[in-house]
Amino acid sequence: MAIEEGKKAPLFTLPNQSGKKIALRELIGKDVILFFYPRDHTPGCTKEACGFQELLPDIRKVKRGVVVLGISMDDADSHKKFRRDYKLRYDLLTDANHKVMEKYEAYGEKKMYGKTRMGVIRSTVWIGKDGKVVRHWRRVPKAADHPQKVLDALSA
Length: 156
What we know:
Blueprint: E1 13-15, E2 21-23, E3 32-36, H1 43-62, E4 67-72, H2 76-86, E5 91-94, H3 99-103, E6 107-112, E7 115-120, E8 123-127, E9 133-137, H4 146-155
Helix pairs in contact: 1-4
């Protein structure tokens, strides 16, 4: 199933950093920003996560009730430490077997240093209040700049 703008987003339920199950179905009626990232505490992922945190007040100003969720394969302990170390005030979800990432086209072949391997593809999906995909940023090239691009799209 391809992620297409205007189509229903694939439903999922994943645990957050505290083990609480977060279900997309329960977020219908709110805008949701899902950003998929490779690993906690790595340079690019930290810049992106901190960028979303820094812009969170502005994001919530343009889209009241918006929910920002970061998703990686890291476990709850890693997510707790990452949130604590960088004072992140949004949930980080664990997709250990990358099943949700596959549904969202955020896991697949990547080229790094001339080698092809399977891994997490940095990407973001904006899901509207109706549960449909509003925007899909595939293969985000610059992690540090991306949160501002999301804010710009939300503001448009």
